Amino acid sequence: MSPATILNGKMLSEKRLDLLHDEIEKSGITPCLVTVIVGEDRASQMYVRMKHTACERVGIESEGLEYSAAITEADLLNTIQRLNQDPDIHGILVQLPLPEHINTGHILRAVAPEKDVDGFHPVNLGLLLENEPGFRPCTPLGIMTLLAEYGIDPAKKRAVVIGRSTDVGKPIAALLLNADATVTICHSKTENINAYTKEADIIVSAAGRPHMVRADMISPGCVVIDVGINHVDGKLCGDVDFDEVSKIASAITPVPGGVGPMTIVTLMENTFKAALNISCKHV
Ligand code: NAD
């Protein structure tokens, strides 16, 4: 069997960042993204830094608001309200996780849906379920862009999503369903996951469990999308046993260099979309 096609998210994201840079320049609009980070989580700080670097590259103005973990929910809600009301701010991103004393749902629901570039507001999630225009969560939409780039059409395919989180599992399942795949969602309480994955044409793993998806779980020709970000012995790895699975799959995303970069470019694209929509409303 020929080795799997590597779905190169890094390369595609570079290409799309360049295109977006040109589009933003041509538009004459300067989109503005504000990120909000609470506490000292090192991984969150790194993700936010990467987002600001991407903003700079494409010509999006960005501001990072950082608060101590001691901030109250009320103060954080006030901040969000202020950002909602500022016409110069087009996108608001609240980096998760938030400290336990803050209700994440309250904060995400406070972000104006038209500035919700992460696509986590219930209005946008509802629009996703209705298959109507709205902001889609960045990681799932980035995966769909990657599949399209490589000519992988989910229509009529059997797709298995591992993980049911609101930021990845459920929205990627909805996007695949909207694209006419037949979708099964597996999760931590699913028994005998192999029985589902063995039947799959497309597997999206978003469990956050290193090496969980092994070669004996997939059938030849399957497309394998690895969303997982795990650290094992100081090394970054996904959920998929890449070396073994890539011998059987027809296409596979690497970690790093697969889904991660697609998430960031999608955030940039969503922010430009927010700027266009909001700017048009103000004209
Ligand atoms: P989460 O912890 O919110 O959800 C994990 C899901 O996996 C849960 O629904 C759980 O039921 C399921 N699960 C856990 N163990 C399982 C098992 N053994 N078998 C079957 N299902 C199992 O995590 P999340 O936010 O959805 O993120 C998932 C992974 O994706 C993490 O590693 C995260 O770091 C990564 N992630 C990557 C990106 C990216 O851009 N590449 C973006 C978001 C999340």
Small molecules in complex: nicotinamide-adenine-dinucleotide
> C-alpha Rg, in Å?
19 Å
Number of separate strands: 11
Secondary-structure element string: EHEHEHEHHHEHEHEEEEHEH
State the separation between the terminal residues, measured CA to CA: 57 Å
Low-confidence stretches: none
In round numbers, the mean pLDDT is 97
Q: What percentage of amino acids are in beta strands?
A: 15-25%
Broad structural category: alpha/beta
Biggest β-sheet: strands ordered side by side in the sheet: 1-11-8-7-5-6
Helix content: 40-55%
- Globular, elongated, flat, extended or rod-shaped: what is the shape? globular
Plain-language structure description:
The chain has 283 residues and is α/β, with parallel strands linked by helices. It has helices spanning 9-27, 42-58, 73-85, 104-110, 122-130, 138-149, 169-178, 193-197, 242-245, 259-282, and strands at residues 5-6, 32-38, 61-67, 91-94, 158-162, 182-186, 202-205, 223-226, 230-232, 235-237, 251-252. Helix content is 42%, strand content 16%. Helix 7 (169-178) links the parallel strand 5 (158-162) and strand 6 (182-186). Helix 6 packs across helix 7 (169-178) and helix 6 packs across helix 10 (259-282). The longest helix has 24 residues, at 259-282. The radius of gyration is 19 Å and the shape is globular. The structure holds nicotinamide-adenine-dinucleotide. Residues 139, 162-165, 167-169, 186-188, 190, 193, 206-209, 212, 227-230, 259-260, 263 line the site of nicotinamide-adenine-dinucleotide. Nicotinamide-adenine-dinucleotide is lined by residues 139, 162-165, 167-169, 186-188, 190, 193, 206-209, 212, 227-230, 259-260, 263.
